[in-house]
Write a structure and sequence with these properties.
This protein has 375 residues and is an alpha/beta fold. The protein is built from twelve helices and 17 strands. The protein folds into two domains: 204 residues, HUPs (Rossmann fold, 3-Layer(aba) Sandwich); 150 residues, TPP-binding domain (Rossmann fold, 3-Layer(aba) Sandwich). The strands form four sheets. The chain has a seven-stranded parallel sheet, with helices on both faces. Strands 14-13-15-16-17 form a five-stranded parallel sheet. Helix 1 packs parallel to helix 4 and helix 7 packs parallel to helix 11. The radius of gyration is 23 Å and the shape is elongated. The chain starts with a helix and ends with a helix. The chain binds flavin-adenine dinucleotide (FAD). Flavin-adenine dinucleotide binds next to helix 8, helix 9 and helix 11.
Length: 375
């Protein structure tokens, strides 16, 4: 193990020296994948990398770490999402994912090509890998960013994230340390538009890694369905403490079914034990950006808003006209949810039978059509 650490240190200092000369290296995105399937957040970050690289006058690049099996396919996809260069690190020890060899391979790539910025998804794997690499490279890492900007004067990456329980937004910089590293939660940025005709350069790198690694993956549980369903959903119907009991969530299941959506929840409802934590939306839950978000019996605490205010349309149902959720809602219904939700379900069913859609659902259809056309 001592030998391993020493090698890593050598790579780190090489990276540090190369990077310390300038803040304007390329902007890299580490493509998280399982086999040939990339995590959606990687493509969300690719769009962001393009924007940041344009501001820096450098290039957006992607990094694919794996055994080489699906790397070519993933590289093509990365180029279609805007990568000008794709670095493929191929070694049998890089698949399946474990943090140790992947962090060594990434640190090696950094030492050789000196990026200015590295972005990873704030997923279980992304967090694991990012913290290991940042430690090896002795550089700064800002977790769970919600916005990234280039400072026009210093060219440093301004990394903004909620702090102190979400009561303030902190902007963090990492002067004197390169690369600047950040993780971003899935759903914070819109997915970049793919261009099948885009071209880019592919660079293959063969890391020197031990064939046998100290950590082995014995079993793999794919992403939990609850999380996956919230992430990709066009319509989310979320319930809060105003639902009063677990069994009342069946009302929201009915509404979600009529709207072709899925059920989410506030932390209030999760803490009460009514809904699985995997359905929680907000700062310590998931960040979602559906076309329609229906907040039912949710007050609109800042930590909840942090996870859903990127929705195209927000409909709030609450019996308190002063509830903060109404400040960000596009449509609000003040009333008892136990009367409003059944009435909504009846109305939607009626309109589906030919009476024409209402104003909220007209806008939902228009947004869905716009998004489809933009794909
Ligand atoms: C560090 C930290 C992280 C957090 N992360 C999250 C997070 O990720 N997600 C999150 O949601 N929260 C989070 N919270 C908690 C957050 O601050 C709030 O406590 C929580 O969002 C409140 O949940 P709620 O809106 O369901 O409950 P409440 O604030 O109790 O609101 C219930 C609402 O229901 C309405 N209501 C009651 N009965 C009815 C009825 N019959 N008809 C209609 N309306 C009714 C009430 O008027 C009220 O507005 C976090 C807090 C901290 C400190």
């Amino acid at each position: 193990m001592a030998g391993t650490r020493n090698n890593k240190k050598k790579e780190s200092s090489a990276a540090g020296k190369a990077g310390a000369d300038s803040n304007t290296g390329d902007v890299w995105v580490v493509i998280e994948h399982e086999g040939d399937l990339a995590a959606r957040v990687s493509w969300e970050l690719m769009g962001e990398a393009r924007r940041l690289a344009a501001d820096l006058g450098t290039q957006p690049a992607a990094v694919v770490l794996g055994d080489g099996e699906n790397s070519g396919q993933l590289a093509e996809q990365a180029i279609s999402y805007g990568a000008a260069i794709v670095y493929i690190a191929a070694h049998a020890a890089l698949s399946p994912f474990t943090a140790e060899p992947q962090s060594r391979a990434l640190a090696g790539l950094v030492g050789k090509y000196s990026p200015g910025i590295i972005l990873l998804g704030a997923t279980t794997r992304g967090r694991d890998l990012a913290s290991a690499v940042a430690t090896d490279l002795e550089t700064g890492l800002t977790a769970d960013c919600t916005s990234l900007e280039i400072d026009p004067g210093t060219k440093l990456l301004r990394q903004t994230r909620p702090a102190f329980g979400g009561n303030i937004m902190a902007t963090i910089i990492s002067p004197g340390h390169l690369p600047q590293m950040a993780t971003v939660r899935p759903g914070v940025f819109p997915i970049a538009k793919a261009d099948a005709g885009a071209t880019g350069k592919v660079v293959t790198y063969r890391p020197r890694l031990a064939a046998v690694q100290p950590v082995r993956r014995l079993h793999y549980l794919p992403e939990l369905e609850d999380e996956a369903s919230l992430q990709g959903a066009d319509v989310i119907v979320s319930g809060g403490r105003g639902m009063h009991q677990a069994r009342n969530f069946s009302l929201l299941e009915d509404l979600a079914r009529e709207l072709g959506g899925v059920v989410g929840a506030s932390r209030g409802a999760v803490d009460a034990g009514w809904v699985s934590a995997r359905r929680q939306v907000g700062q310590t839950g998931q960040t979602v950006r559906p076309v329609l978000y229906v907040a039912v019996g949710i007050s609109g605490a800042i930590q909840h808003l942090a996870g859903m205010q990127q929705a195209d349309i927000v409909l709030a149902i609450n019996n308190d006209p002063t509830a903060p959720i109404f400040n960000i809602a596009d449509f609000g219904i003040v009333g008892d949810l136990f009367e409003v939700v059944p009435a909504l379900i009846t109305e939607i069913k009626k309109r589906k039978d030919g009476a024409g859609a209402g104003i909220v659902f007209d806008r939902v259809v228009a947004e869905q059509t716009r998004k489809e056309a933009a794909k």
